[in-house]
Amino acid sequence: MTFALRSLLYGSRIRRGLPFGSMEVESPSLAEILAAAARGEQWAGEQLVRRYERLVWSVVRHFRLESNTAWDVYNTVFLRLWEHADRIRQPEALPGWLAATARNEAMRTIRNQRRQVPTEFEYDLADPALSSLDEAIIEDEEVASVVTAFKQLEERCQELLKLLVVEPKLDYETVASLLGKPMGYLGPTRGRCVEKLRRIMERRRPGDDDAPDRR
Amino acid sequence: MSTTGSNQEDRDDERLLALLGAGLAAADPIPEWVSRGAAESVTWARIDAELAELVFDSAVEDLAGVRSEAGARLLSFRAPEIEVEVTVEEGVRRLIGQVVPPQELDIELVGPAIAVATRSDPLGRFTFDQVPAGPLSLRCLTVGGVVQTQWVVV
Prior knowledge:
The complex is a heterodimer of chains A (215) and B (154). With 215 residues, chain A is an all-alpha fold. Helix content of chain A is 67%, strand content 0%. Chain A is built from 10 helices and no strands. In chain A, helix 3 packs across helix 4. Chain A is globular and about 55 Å long. Chain A starts with a helix and ends in an 11-residue tail after the last helix. In chain B, 32% of the residues are buried. In chain B, strands 1, 2, 3, 4, 5, 6, 7, 8, 9 and 10 form a 10-stranded mixed sheet that branches. In chain B, 23% of the residues lie in helices and 39% in strands. Chain B is of the alpha+beta class and 154 residues long. Chains A and B meet through helix 3, helix 4, helix 5, helix 6 and helix 7 of A and helix 1, helix 2 and strand 10 of B.
């Protein structure tokens, strides 16, 4: 069965990941999904948004855009993706392309805002993603304890870790360019920041104060 | 010193970062309507068109000798056979356009919250009023086919 026919028949099931009884349907490759997006097929749009929206969102948030503006930039990145979907020859380059597009559009928006309100707009606004951490209700205790510790990290570590936890993973080159740091900064800093995060968590664990190295 | 091997430490680090990733995603969720809007835009962001690339944006760069007026943003888009120059007056949200070479064309302004059409005059000029903020694109219906400008937030 051709892919086009298969997606016509089963597209909605593929995208929802539903089982087909005994029938086995391989999931379409990224190249096939991109080709379908270029034809304007909604299931392909849904798959690409679901797969990459955290990546796009994290890059946009890195620039501390408030929500309305962040949504506009996020939308624009996907509109650019539909525009370019049939020209992406190497699907494995997609995360890097999305990150670069998100960065360019976020910076364009920031410059435009600065131009309009040159005195009022400052880059070092409160980070909207961080302030949302204070209000978040996280039910999983283990996740909640990591987030609580994360809030006590210095800003440098927070910024780096926020980009490193993004799924699918951003490559080191992209992360370094977003932070305006050389590649050699990432490995050692990541190690130090993770270690600090761990120490903060251990400090908070009762009865463990006398043995900080024990896990 | 830890007695565990470095592979174990790597796995511990990965697990910690995965937990952190889950927590950060939960704390700063993307609203469902925003996700849905982005996914649905694939169906109306038509790709039958030739792309007119954004080649100038006064928000990003100022051409030597060209000073953008305060409160107006200049954008230029270029396709092989036509160029579209656009001024967005920010206060009144009016979009004034110029097609080069000058010609009468049907032109559509599309975006998540808008789809309106007009026609350029013989000098290639056109105007859209009350343009909503957000991503926008112009579709120009030329004799050779549709030319669509790159998406940009205005």
